[in-house]
Amino acid sequence: MAFRIPGIRKASLSASKGTNVPKGYLAVYVGDKMRRFVIPVCYLNQSSFQELLNQAEEEFGYDHPTGGLTIPCSEDEFLSLTSQLGGQ
Questions:
Q1: pLDDT score of 23
Q2: Domain boundaries, the chain
């Protein structure tokens, strides 16, 4: 069963290494499998998302292994957070 979370876009596998990100969005990598998500840049202003950014800075500094922004949490946690942000 599939469901859609407003405001978040899952990157397709064919575009996972590309730079195909719409204006106003940002690609992030999440979870053990480094799954790529494309999120609205407005999420960066939210305090709950800023906590994740602080964790990313502590864990990776500014050298992210995927070349993109890596978020150090599980996919489930990330989807839960973004679904709350999308509903605001």
A1: 92
A2: 25-86
